[in-house]
Amino acid sequence: VAELELIRAVERALRARGGRVLAGPGDDAAVVRARPIAVTSIDTIVEGVHFELSTHAFSDVGHKALATALSDLAAMGVEPGEAYAALVLQPELETDRALELVGGMEQLAERTGVTIAGGDVVNGPVLTVSVTVTGWAEREEEIVRRDGARPDDLVGVSGPLGGSGAGLELLRGARVELPEAVWEALLARHRRPEPRLAAGQTLAAAGVSAMIDLSDGVAADASHLAERSGVELGIDLAAVPLAAGVAEVAAAVGADPLRFAATAGDDYELLFTVPPERAEAVEAAAGSAGSEAVWLGRAAAGGGATFRDAAGRAVALAGYEHA
Ligand SMILES: [Mg+2]
Questions:
Q1: Digit-coded pLDDT (tens) for 210-263
Q2: What's phi and psi for 155, nearest 5 deg?
Q3: In this structure, are residues 107 and 59 in contact, taking their beta carbons and an 8 Å threshold?
């Protein structure tokens, strides 16, 4: 792409929101009116590793890059503020395609009240989008970390799992009979994951003790949370809620549906722990954000995540890793 021409066009496509950004794209640096606590995360997606252009529109790629970064802010329970995007684009890529990518990002930014306050565009060998996001809080106690789970806490998840993995299998050609709407929902789940920002904030306010977003699958991410908190998370696989169509797709690819849902990545639901006396408040909080609190198990003294099937037998699960 012609970098300067694209940068000018991108500047015209972006809008400031929330009144914090005093200077955005177009100056040498962004200038933001800060709140007391900044919460910052960075996420990078690479063509051929995290997405394929044969199955994703450029606008999907822009959406996905911002969504995965914002999902980390959701897991901290904070309000999102600004995003900064670095694009590596192939020299032969047309400006219009690059603008579609930025458009997908800006649409999600608008819906979530985020300002894309700066970035960089360079030519390079592989389409890569790296997004840094900053969220804001007034007090340190508002922020939920991975290390707060305690023995006896309940383990919950904010919504059904396996949808993104099932969508990926459909895009790869899995042969299965599904209602059109279910099929489309699975593809959308894979192409345009939704960061659970509202749920993250209401769950934090309702008193969850630890939280993580499900990027690698509950099998892997529950282990991360357990490790950081120094507890064991015991998860009942039969309690894992399946997105519509996941059971059918898993069967079509010869997988057990619950194992599939627990190990497929990219769902971006929130996994959290809650002291039992706050469970009801957390259910109400999740509902108020359009999510749910589905209880998967309990924390105990010990370490790591353990999984049991409906008969109570221990099940070994490997976390999802991007190929
Ligand atoms: Mg994360």
A1: 999 999 999 999 999 999 999 999 999 999 999 999 999 999 999 999 999 999
A2: -105, 125
A3: yes
Measure 48 CA to ligand 1 centroid, in angstroms: 21
C-alpha dist (Å) from residue 243 to 32, 45, 51, 162, 260:
39, 24, 21, 6, 11
In the reported structure, the alpha carbon of residue 221 is separated from the centroid of ligand 1 by a whole-number distance in angstroms of 8
Pairing of strands 304-308, 231-236: parallel
pTM beyond cutoff 0.90: yes
DSSP for 147-203, please give it: T---TT-EEEESS-BSHHHHHHHHHTT------HHHHHHHHHHHHS----HHHHHHH
| Residue (of 224, 320, 318) closest to 272 by Cα position | 224
Spatial separation of the C-alpha atoms in residues 31 and 10, rounded to whole Å:
18
How many A from CA of 323 to the centre of ligand 1?
Answer: 18
- 261 alpha carbon to ligand 1 midpoint, in Å? 18
For 87-128, the pLDDT digits (tens) are: 999 999 999 999 999 999 999 999 999 999 999 999 999 999
**Gap between the Cα atoms of 81 and 18, Å rounded:** 8
